[in-house]
């Protein structure tokens, strides 16, 4: 998006001149004819630089300058006047003006002044961004995990971060791929520059091209302003391309060219601009399978798969679940403004033994829901959703009896059904082996499976039995 300049001057000829001059240089220009109109336009937001006259019908540019600095001290303001005086210049600089020019002014000098003022604003904004990002503590040492699999990931991040090599993160949805990408960036020499991200599957092809490479003003319907694009915005930083497997074949060709040439061309543009960007991609798909089907380019795959990192599913690092639970409980208690909660052994065991198809994201969402709905000082098994309890080895004696009692037979049946489903999953649906795992006779297993509607592979056990027969 082009940078936005507000011109405040009561002379129509000066407004027209500055609009023409600045728009020809690629800026987006708004105009106002009075101090109050200028302040009103600035309050709407989106202004990067203000050029203001000193003398106006309803006040002075110094009053406008003071109001702008109170609203946003980061915005640069250049004062203009036909009545130059040392006293006024000193007062303007004390109030925070970037600079002061006298009319009539040299066009080249004014353009250079505008460019430098905008560069200062951009630098200030980038420093604010950096401080905000660093406060989030994306360093890999703050990613929760003590399992051997996560320790391997930490070691790999430390080695990879020192390079500028392209990284491809693979893993199921919810395993924390963007968190790992940010950790790599903030542990790298590029940490002082921007980390930007985009989900390649969330946008249609035309919009994705514009987001990545930018576009010229008027290059397509709705392109009212020039757009720089994420490649240029993340120059000397890191660009994270999530769900790379969802990218259309034509976009894959354009991305491959940008990676090979290290240059980008805006939509509707003719000139190419060199970019220095580290690329980190992520996918939860099997790209080799997509290549086999002709849905993903093999040459692009080799370009992005320089350093592959496979992130484990949560069920593959169950020893990390207690750490994650404690972390999320503390995090959401702080956000909700409630006292810290303890968690009973029975409830923790239920969480440890759940399969977590949604991985860490699912676990965090569940902890947030439990905290929002529970009222006690301690999280107990009755606070844990039933579908989680069904598949666990939590023993009834370890669960607190609710104040209003419970249906013991139904509760025991839920536990039995959950264990039988796990046994069937583990034995690929072979009932005799599943019965052996649970220390049950085949006849007893078959009886309870029919009674409780236990299924394997989407089919009731009785249907499997008839087919096997």
Your description of this structure?
The chain has helices spanning 12-24, 35-43, 61-71, 86-94, 107-135, 148-161, 177-186, 205-213, 230-233, 249-261, 287-293, 298-304, 321-336, 345-353, 359-373, 386-389, 408-426, 431-437, 442-452, 461-468, and strands spanning 4-8, 28-32, 49-53, 55-56, 59-60, 76-81, 99-102, 167-170, 195-199, 238-242, 263-265, 272-274, 278-283, 307-310, 342-343, 378-379, 455-456, 459-460. It has 469 residues and is an alpha/beta fold. It has four domains: 4-131, 3-Layer(aba) Sandwich (Rossmann fold); 140-312, P-loop containing nucleotide triphosphate hydrolases (Rossmann fold); 313-406, Helicase, Ruva Protein, domain 3 (Orthogonal Bundle), CATH 1.10.8.60; 409-469, Arc Repressor Mutant, subunit A (Orthogonal Bundle). The strands form six sheets. It has a five-stranded parallel β-sheet, with helices on both faces. A five-stranded parallel β-sheet has the order 9-10-13-8-14.
